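Weekly sync notes, structure subgroup
Attendees: PM, AL, DS (notes)

Item 1: joint prediction request from the bench team. They want all three components modeled as one assembly rather than separately. Inputs as received:
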Amino acid sequence: MESQGLFLFIEVAAVIVSAVSGMIKAAEKKMDLVGTYSIALLVSFGGGTLRDILLNRRPFFWVENEVYLFIVLLMAIAFVYVPVVHKLAKVLYTRSNTIDAIGLGLFSIAGLFAALNMGMPLFSSSLMGVITGVAGGVFRDVVINEIPVIFRYTGGLYAVASFAGCWLCILLVVIFEAPFIGFISGTSMIVALRLLSIYWGLQLPRPLWVTDEDEK
Amino acid sequence: MESQGLFLFIEVAAVIVSAVSGMIKAAEKKMDLVGTYSIALLVSFGGGTLRDILLNRRPFFWVENEVYLFIVLLMAIAFVYVPVVHKLAKVLYTRSNTIDAIGLGLFSIAGLFAALNMGMPLFSSSLMGVITGVAGGVFRDVVINEIPVIFRYTGGLYAVASFAGCWLCILLVVIFEAPFIGFISGTSMIVALRLLSIYWGLQLPRPLWVTDEDEK
Amino acid sequence: MESQGLFLFIEVAAVIVSAVSGMIKAAEKKMDLVGTYSIALLVSFGGGTLRDILLNRRPFFWVENEVYLFIVLLMAIAFVYVPVVHKLAKVLYTRSNTIDAIGLGLFSIAGLFAALNMGMPLFSSSLMGVITGVAGGVFRDVVINEIPVIFRYTGGLYAVASFAGCWLCILLVVIFEAPFIGFISGTSMIVALRLLSIYWGLQLPRPLWVTDEDEK
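Output from the run, pasted for the record:
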């Protein structure tokens, strides 16, 4: 009961933060309401939708919970036309690292379990978890004509945090047959790694071809 | 009988106009025959294909009506290599607003009914209608490396026209149980809104972040 | 027995060459390990995955043969962090035209048979063969924000070689009911056309809009 309420809250928060991140990018690119709404949907639901297409699962999350589509539409209208909401959204977003990290963790582990439950083997399942967590942002960047930010060296751990958390979860599920503990531990690890990479500068070793100059 | 013939004519015309719009973009980007044909197919069949993937429907429109694939191939060859066809296509295209609008209307409402018939809820179905009508053009722009034109403020109503027409159709279908009237009214509304936005400058209110300068 | 071993070798070689081609592009764009691995997977498995989505086939090649995902991950790590491997991969790649061509041929004909076996009509099946052979490279170029190289006039025959080989195979299968001969002949034709276009400059006639200057 308690935890269901918590999950719902985090789910709503993750969808909202994802949508806002898409809207801000859309505004930077001088898009209109259509573009703003489209990019918001792409970020919020793109990853889960790609996962469900790959797993051949229906109905989609956003078909079963249509109200989200409607909420994001209202958000987009307010963001595009109401100055105070627009400013608020930007302020919220600059302080949303934690919510974004929780969203990454939650979506990744949810994607992982979806794949495992469909009988996918372990390594594919872990990638499916990562895809669920990160693909929305990749779609956003491809559509606004930029190289996906999570493929760049700067910006901290994102896909890697998701991958590590998925494997922690897999180990706990497979070895100890403890799905709930796996879920909590995996999500926590993703959130922790993501936030550590932002605040402490934790990152992967530098690729051979990146110089000091590339990092600005 | 009469109306079937009319539908077929409009379907053929919509496919041809979509294909030509893709070819012209491909030529602007100095693509070759392969690129020209690919972009033409993407514009003509991309939206319906995405819809069918999302709805898990098979076979695709272009598998059941393979002849379209072949027609578009012949068109692409002629467009790329025969000067008179190339010029004709460009002239046709500059005068094709009406056909393009009818295509948008027809494809949108067809997508809407496909979703409703699969038991999708109303709001998702309306978005599925919009996706069917507009996604081909979005794919084209993503592949030729431009920000999708329907996401920009200039250019008039496009997705919005489709959305409004889909909802008129839904209302008529749900309240009055009149699919045929819904089909005719929805399509007409989309065509009307699209053409009004082109010829009378009808458009959405300007987003907060767009200035006079941005509009050129 | 013999030929199975040969097929496995070519399959492995084609996956590796595809992955390396993706990694080199990722390095050019200064991506990190995540980007390098993602682009490598996209090139190696994107075409087959799109085909299976269009054909509604599961499980995917890379789910059934998960070990490839793992091999490509190890390759990406070595490519990003081990100087000697990085250099070796670049040298290998500049000499890999033949392997790449065999990969194109093999993947195309495999895609063609997959479509024919699902009962798809002939023309759609031939396009499905081409998509399987070339879509991975198109995805790579879209994500790294370039116009797909196979849509440009320079670069020789690629999709066209695949298309021609698929049709040779279809003719042999349909007229002579000789799948194995079709497979061998189709693949050979693709490889031959691809290599002839590279070494002898065989190409399509120049589109109307391409001038001497465009060709550099």
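Discussion: Chain A has a mean pLDDT of 91.
Action: AL to compare against the crosslinking data before next sync.
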